[in-house]
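FIELD: query
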Amino acid sequence: MTWKNVKDIIRLLSLLITGLTIVLLIRTATFGPPAKNIEPCETSDADRISVKGGPLERFKQALRIKTISWDQDEQNDDELQEFVDFVTQAFPLVHSTPHIITRELVSNFSMLYTVKGTDPSLQSYLLIGHFDVVPVAADKWDYDGFGAIEEDGYIYARGTIDNKHQVMGILEALEYMLKNGIQPKRSFYVAFGHDEEIVGYKGAKMMGKMLKDRGERLAFVHDEGMGILDGIIPGAQSPIA
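FIELD: result
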């Protein structure tokens, strides 16, 4: 290959990259939500789950289980199993209504739920959470990192916002749904990983492969996110989600 050929190839690649960049910029600038008529949901107090009582105490119990991930070769398997057993007991309808919800254990501890809707023609979606947590540096905490101490309206424990709140919130909603005789119209999946803090090779990766092997094409995925924060991005004048 001559130097002229090399230059021609480089020039072609440069043109392709430039063209792709232009397409991406145009698509980004013109992207918008689908033009559909969206009907707002009507809500009432009956649609809301009170945090007081059962849900709050269950959340605290979940936080006290030390589902720590140190690295890919070191996790607390006994505590992971305790968490799986805990949610099985804490949400009896979710785990005893197989004609609507089924659960598969993946790599021993991750949990993949299938929630069957009444209209199989609708495209499924996926809700994701994880219940492992990173270790606690005790000298940097004013409270026991797994004590779930409540003070002045705050709960202090590892996992309160990363990510047991999401796991427990979804399970509370599913239990509420079944308790009130509700079956969704659209089917969906719920995936709870046990090793997200150490990349998720055994949990998320395997559950993703299972859905792919089944030919699932999801409408959307709702995963872990942060709160709404001020000043997180320099120059931004509005709160950022």
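FIELD: remark
The CA atoms of residues 145 and 181 lie 38 Å apart.
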